Amino acid sequence: MALEICDGCGEPFEGDPCPHCGRPAAERGDLRRLPAEVVVAFVEHAHAFLAASPWRQSVLAVAAGSFIGFGAMLSVVLTVGVDVPGVARLLLGLGFAAGFALVILSGSALFTEINVLLPELFLSGRGPRLRLFRFWVIVYVGNLVGAIFVGFMLNAADVIGPAQGERLAELIGEKMRFEQLGAEGWLRVVASGILANWLVGMAAFLATAARTVSGKILGIALPILAFVALGVQHVPANMGYFAAGLIHGGTGTTVPEAFVWNLLPATIGNLIGGAVLVSLLFWYVFGDGAKRASLARANDHVQATRPHG
User: Fold this and answer.
1) One domain for residues 54 and 19
2) Which phi and psi (to 5°) does residue 82 adopt?
3) Most CB atoms closer than 10 Å: which of 183, 195, 228, 271?
4) What CATH number does the domain containing 39 carry?
């Protein structure tokens, strides 16, 4: 019997109905959501994030940054001594696919996923602007804190040996190569960030479309492998690299340089890629039906929680 993710409470379960909330399982012939249903699920997921307290939001953000930090280090370890470029890119992608799977399946809050979810909530008319912006900031800072924490722990645990440190410095050097081009290089990082969050947003889309754990992992893996193989700029991933590398030393890069020439323009690009090329694109096609369904669910919840008598 396949392990499924409950549409009601988000918990994994086997059998029918869900033992956690009592919601019936999806029909066996319907193991995926249609695109319009994914948009509705995005709105509901974003609403659940926004309903959490700032402290819980912070914990989810730190967890996501930590998981991506683990993925970054795994990609380093897997590619030490690999001289074939295509194979190295594939292994880099596998490392990040593992980290992203941890984020999605744990319900953590990743900046590049939030770039897709929150615009959908805003367009649905259910998201207060101030709370949306505050949550965006909490997630970004939390992801950075998580990356720094994991980077510190990896160095403290002596996971980064000479070979890993050298490989880490190589990868950071690739990300900082745009600095030599000045303003043109800065804009290239923005464009690269747009492409990265477009693909990461599609990973979130495909993972949400799948109803089983195995389906979600497959949906995550394909776009993540693509973005890593293309070498485009993903802010949480770069946070993981920079945190581990700068703490370890020997990268030839300073914190201000990393922020100005990589993290800042990549952040702008990630915001554009996720919000425009995923959220707005699918909202334009499926938004009318999704908005009606989302409002209907909200009204049903109000009716269910209203005291009777």
Assistant:
1) no
2) -90, 115
3) 228
4) 1.20.1080.10
